[in-house]
Amino acid sequence: MDIRFAGIDPDTDEDGCPTVWVDTETADLLIQGYDADKRTESTCDALSPARVPVPPGEAIVRIPKRMIPIIRKACDELDPGVR
After folding, report:
1. Out of the domains of life, which is the source (predicted)?
2. Which of 17, 41, 43, 50 is the most exposed place for a label (fewest CB within 10 A)?
3. pLDDT per position as a tens digit, 46-71
4. What's this model's pTM, rounded to 2 decimal places?
5. What is the C-alpha separation between 69 and 75, in angstroms, rounded?
6. Which residues contact 54 (CB under 8 A, 6 or more apart)?
7. Which distant-in-sequence residues (6+ apart) come within 8 Å of 71 by Cβ?
8. How many Å apart are CA 71 and CA 2, to the nearest integer?
9. Across the beta sheet with 19-23, what order do the strands follow?
């Protein structure tokens, strides 16, 4: 497993803030974020093509807009065509 740190919320207080890592073996993004509230979960469930609740083992995670550059950086690291 080769996991690399991509970035942390630039407004972090260093205590459990949204963070992005990349797994270079699987090309997966690993994201720590805020739990979505029940209203957000219900709205996402209603918009799901399958119209089913989020299944066990999955979660809706809210990532602040200010982290978009970090997510782009992580995606670029995983996409060999970008380098």
Report:
1. Bacteria
2. 50
3. 998 877 888 889 999 999 999 999 99
4. 0.77
5. 10
6. 41, 44, 45, 60
7. 6, 20, 29, 31, 63
8. 18
9. 3-8, 19-23, 28-32
